[in-house]
Design goal:
Number of helices: 2
Number of strands: 19
Distance between the termini: 52 Å
CATH class: Mainly Beta
Largest sheet: 18 strands, antiparallel, barrel
Helix content: under 10%
Number of domains: 1
Length: 288
């Protein structure tokens, strides 16, 4: 059960931070992805890494996880993502995303299409007069409401409460957040469908705003996972360690990079417990 709970907790956070950023600290997708310059498009291809005669080589990936899928993204001149395609190993479309924005640069719609490019779902976002997201509604392909999230913010624009609602507008899940004086999210509590505390998270940051430690707690306050992170001078992650409740290392990931002249990485090699596992190669195009 604890393994399942860890997966659910991390998945919930991934969805939260990738799709529901509503703090004023979020400027555009390029900043969120730690990309420099006026990026127009990125094509990223993944390979499995193998060692041969002491050297690391890339091989064509077989689709086994989300890390094995190739992606292509386009951005407008404001740095907002307008298209994201995910591909199978044979180059066919697996999923396609398109995005729309208002005149202030806030994302107001996301459409998701399947492999045949039929509409799968649609997300619609609403903002208050200060430009902070206050609602996110998800619809299915027929236009039926599937889910709704509502958001509350403090006077600095930091998200402090997120509530999930079913189509009947019944409350179903809640997140609460606490930030430091720099706007970094340092604590959050996640509640179950009955509004009981489910689990807690804490983060620590360095002076550049990189989070360097993450602690995950059971509802009773017992630690069940700790992650630590290290970064290079370009703010890209070069090490991640996962510790269990007894402070034993469960997994260690390290990353090596090759950069272009904009200091954006164009090759990333990921090592798992010192063994090379993946190689990601990017082709980045820039606006002139």
């Amino acid at each position: 059960m604890k393994v399942i709970k860890i997966i659910v907790a991390i998945s919930a956070l991934a969805i939260l931070f990738k799709g529901c950023i509503s703090s004023k600290e979020f400027d555009n997708d390029l900043k969120d992805m730690n990309l420099n310059g006026k990026v127009k498009s990125i094509k990223e291809k993944s390979y499995h890494a193998v060692i041969k005669d002491g050297d690391i080589f890339k091989t064509e990936s077989e689709i086994q996880s989300c890390q094995d899928r190739d992606i292509y993204m386009e951005f407008d001149e404001r740095g907002n993502k307008t298209k994201r395609n995910i591909y199978n190993a044979d180059g066919s479309i697996y999923r396609k995303y398109t995005y729309k924005y208002n005149e202030d640069g806030n994302r107001i719609q996301q459409n998701v299409y399947d492999a045949e490019e039929n509409l799968n779902s649609k997300n619609v976002y609403e903002y208050n007069d200060n430009g902070y997201m206050i609602e996110n509604r998800q619809y299915d392909s027929s236009g039926n409401l599937v889910w709704k999230n509502t958001y509350e913010h403090d006077e600095h624009g930091n998200m402090v409460i997120k509530k999930g609602h079913d189509p009947e507008n019944e409350f179903s899940r809640k997140f609460t957040f606490k930030h430091d004086d720099k706007g970094n999210m340092i604590k959050w509590h996640i509640y179950d469908f009955y509004d009981n505390l489910d689990y807690k998270h804490e983060r620590k940051y360095d002076n550049k705003g990189n989070y360097i430690e993450r602690n995950l707690f059971e509802s009773d306050g017992n630690l069940y996972r700790r992650d630590t992170y290290k970064y290079d001078e370009n703010r890209n992650k070069i090490q991640q360690k996962w510790f269990d409740a007894d402070n034993n290392i469960v997994e260690k990931l390290t990353f090596d990079y090759k950069y272009d002249d904009q200091n954006n990485w164009i090759k990333q090699t990921m090592f798992k417990n010192k063994e090379p596992e993946y190689i990601f190669v990017r082709d980045i195009k820039y606006y002139k």
